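Final report, results section. Input specification for complex C-07:
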Amino acid sequence: MIKVVHYINQFYGGIGGEEKADVKPEVREGVVGPGMALKGALGKDAEIVATIICGDSYFNENIEEATEEILKMVKSYEPDLFIAGPAFNAGRYGVACGTICKAVKDNLNIPVVSGMYPENPGADMFKKDIYIVETANSATGMRKAIPVMAKLALKLAKKEEIGPPAEEGYIARGVRKNIFREERGSKRAVDMLVAKLKGEPFVTEYPMPDFDKVAPNPPVLDMKNAKIALVTSGGIVPKGNPDRIEASSASKYGKYDIEGVMDLTQETHETAHGGYDPVYANEDPDRVLPVDVLRELEQEGVIGELHRYFYSTVGNGTSVANSKKYASAIAKELVADGVQAVILTST
Amino acid sequence: MRLELGNIFIKDLQFGEATKVENGVLYVNKEELLEAIGGDNRIASIEVDIAKPGEETRIMPVKDVVEPRVKVEGPGGIFPGFINKVDQVGSGRTHVLKGAAVVTAGKIVGFQEGIIDMSGPGAEYTPFSKTYNLVLVCTPVDNLPQHEHEHAVRMIGLKAAAYIGEAGRNVEPDEVKVYETLPLLESIKKYPDLPKVGYVYMLQTQGLLHDTYVYGVDAKKIVPTIIYPTEVMDGAIISGNCVSACDKNPTYNHLNNPIIEDLYERHGKDYNFVGVIITNENVTLSDKERSSNWSAKLAEYLGLDGVIISEEGFGNPDTDLMMNCKKISAKGIKTVLVTDEYAGRDGASQSLADADKSADAVVTGGNANEIIELPAMKKVIGDLKPADVIAGGFAGSLRPDGSIVAELQVITGATSEIGFNKLSATQY
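Structure output:
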């Protein structure tokens, strides 16, 4: 039997409307409000063991505490599945559903499903993280939304393969998945070109994303007293690649001590990078990670000091999401260690 | 320029007393072959093996795949600048042993060699599970620098393909296809009312084992230029690169560039395919600016109304792709891009390292980061051990039973950026 916990707001919980939106989370055994219909749709394989109700204002004004409280409540039931909403076009309700779903997924590692109108701000915020079934913009769409949510939730709980958005009824998550098409790519390109030339409609296979633009920081004015760190995506690691950083699509980064190291040599360091001829980097790893030059600058007093650790990963084929994750973890440590500037080398 | 391609369909491959084609069977005399391709003192040994479609065979690590061809009429010989002199190729008649391929394999050169499975799930993704493969496992002498190793194996592959191609010289082809591209002004005169389209063919030239050659010239050192599509069919462009196996263009793919074939298919009907602009993917910003300015200038100069732009590799060259797209689009020329994606194993990451609004018509060859499981095979040609270190592999990719779990990236030709396959990706 799949144990389900359901989350709804104060309105669907029957506590009250806007005037009761500040009620704190509470938990009730069994089904409440839309949980009735959900129970029917889930059928005999699943049971809603508890329903958590929280005021929309309370949640949104106390996101961290509310999330923590609700997470505790969910956890105490040890459910296999978590369902929130549907929130339709109610903005604060949508954000609450999305936030709590993501927290449950991340912390308890169980499948979660919500339902929202695509323009609900919660949909935009969380569609990447969780499955959100597309609903109408008001509760009149309840009857249609519940069976779709239940079906998808059961599939997730049973670890069945999830089909494309149009088939399963969820809002596209922006996740790329491989498929085989009818024609080879070159033919599809020619067809697309002919359509474009004729001004006929065509569908791009990869819609351009919004691209991150990072504004450069102001320059470091006092280099003489600055602590400088070296970070590279060029794969320089101690000889033997102790952390086994992959040659491509790196799943990790390494942090390595260079206290007292004046020069990287082919005896001490090498590259793990699989995207270029490693001969020159292995001959003299300073070519990618210039420890030798920075030591000179340190001695000459041009820079204050070279940070004791360098960080290294392999940029080759490594996803942007992973790169961001590594960068934010590395940046946090660098800031904590009082580093003022970083020389970032690639290959 | 007019080229007849005579396809001789190869239905089997065997070792034999003489190297010849008889009733669709390609026989190869091993000793004669080794004589033709041997003699490089940088290579300690070459083993020759055969892999056929449907067999439970895995070939790895694979460096290049080359199709056996021979020029039977017209100037020049196959692979000008390498095997033959630099006479201009692309006219007359060329015979092709269609269905046969030379696969170079053996000790890893870079990290980016690939896997070819002749059956099972991996076979679905590589074009070379459908060809009869003559596999050359080349072992270098000790401590041979990688670029020397690459050069030696590259030459062995080309020599072998040329040697075997000779077997088709006097064989009557099963089909003859004719491809013709007229000089620009004549072409425009012939099809005055059709829109003019071209192909911007980006060649992998990041250097350090990522090189492509045009008539023997390292394409890093060219500025974009114009080439007749039929020259490519005679081996004017060859691969010398070890970029990730999934989206490099093996020499085989250059010879059979499907964008060129499919552009010819509707030439004279829906548009006038006037020619190919080759450009490179060098790593410095000034090189990128110069080459993209130049390709846009040539597209404008040729009076093109539309172009297909194909990429080779990923990451750094994504910038070249976007620069080409942006600058060519800015000239009022319609663009379609062909690329592949590195969206992470979960597909949730951004697929390309660069983006531009003008890139509104994109064909994708799929997400190279997606994980695939390749069951153990009865026979292995080469060596399984590099599975953990080739691009797309990771610690533990090779399991004790000989099966492999890795990113699709490891499969030769899987996410072709010249549209060789039906594989693609979509939004979930």
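Chain A touches chain B through 58 residues (CB under 8 Å). The domain at 2-168 of chain A is CATH 3.40.50.2300 (Rossmann fold). This concludes the modelling results for the funded period.
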